Amino acid sequence: xxxxxxxxxxxxxxxxxxxxxxxxxxxxxxxxxxxxxxxxxxxxxxxxxxxxxxxxxxxxxxxxxxxxxxxxxxxxxxxxxxxxxxxxxxxxxxxxxxxxxxxxxxxxxxxxxxxxxxxxxxxxxxxxxxxxxxxxxxxxxxxxxxxxxxxxxxxxxxxxxxxxxxxxxxxxxxxxxxxxxxxxxxxxxxxxxxxxxxxxxxxxxxxxxxxxxxxxxxxxxxxxxxxxxxxxxxxxxxxxxxxxxxxxxxxxxxxxxxxxxxxxxxxxxxxxxxxxxxxxxxxxxxxxxxxxxxxxxxxxxxxxxxxxxxxxxxxxxxxxxxxxxxxxxxxxxxxxxxxxxxxxxxxxxxxxxxxxxxxxxxxxxxxxxxxxxxxxxxxxxxxxxxxxxxxxxxxxxxxxxx
Length: 402
Known about the structure:
- By secondary structure, the protein is mainly α.
- The chain has one domain: Up-down Bundle (Growth Hormone, Chain: A), CATH 1.20.1250.
- It has helices at residues 21-40, 44-51, 56-84, 88-107, 111-138, 145-173, 178-184, 186-195, 209-213, 220-235, 240-248, 253-281, 283-303, 307-317, 319-336, 341-369, 371-392.
- Helix 16 (341-369) runs antiparallel to helix 17 (371-392).
- The radius of gyration is 20 Å and the shape is globular.
- It starts with 20 loop residues before the first helix and ends in a 10-residue tail after the last helix.
- 58% of the residues are buried.
């Protein structure tokens, strides 16, 4: 294996260090959309178990299947975006699909309705994600790609901080029911859909239809990265299990939401610095640290037997997405070259989707047997991914720039 990967040079729209206008708008869309999602996410597993009397395996089924489907659909939306040369209309449709799902959850009387609504929500995320990430990639120089993706992740996780806090405000101060929260959460989701229409896109078609659809056109490094991602995806079960574990160890609903907010707050603060660090020190190196953090935190959730430990673990867990989410997407685009950015992101996300379905279903089965088993398995598989990533990808990728 060579130490450096040549990537075709390309001309980007701007060379200064200010964030591009389109990237700023996309970040605001991410903020609003995630504030909407995270307003309902902390109470959703509790709503399923306490109100709709669903077992833990159903929580895993809903989160695993719906998130997996969201990732799988990115192959279709990404390829369509590359072939059509249009990003905004597809992204807009995805934002709208997510927004209309919120009231459906509020009307649910059985968990099967929640499954359908969450499927609609996550399908919307899947439809919009690949074209949205392609818009981000097209807004920045390759040398600045990690910082731009880090900014988007930071705004996403800022929404993840604001959303749970709004949830607590509505539940506590205004004494609203969880069902009311689901209706209110549709407002920022619809605002995000309208805002994405303000993004400028180039309409550039990077490859022909035949080239975009040919998986063999991707680099060996990209394919090896997919293998590593698949192994880690099997470790990465739904975050809902972290919330259930916290309540199992004595957290109240309010404490669980605050701990989840702490996790998202640290993710928001660390995402942009982590993205910039990946531009300087190599994306693989940041991912190695992120996967290692995940393994240690999951082992900790298995070992923990006191509530103070949970606070520390949620805080440490916040570093994991900051070090991996935006960095992994940037690495997928780097290693895929110009074979269709949205297609590259779509395939990468689909691999994650398939494995995360399995991870969440297995995690739910193990959780009903012994909650610790879910976390011990996740820790072991994450360490396996660390070893594979170290062996299969170079520490730095050489990028030829104009």
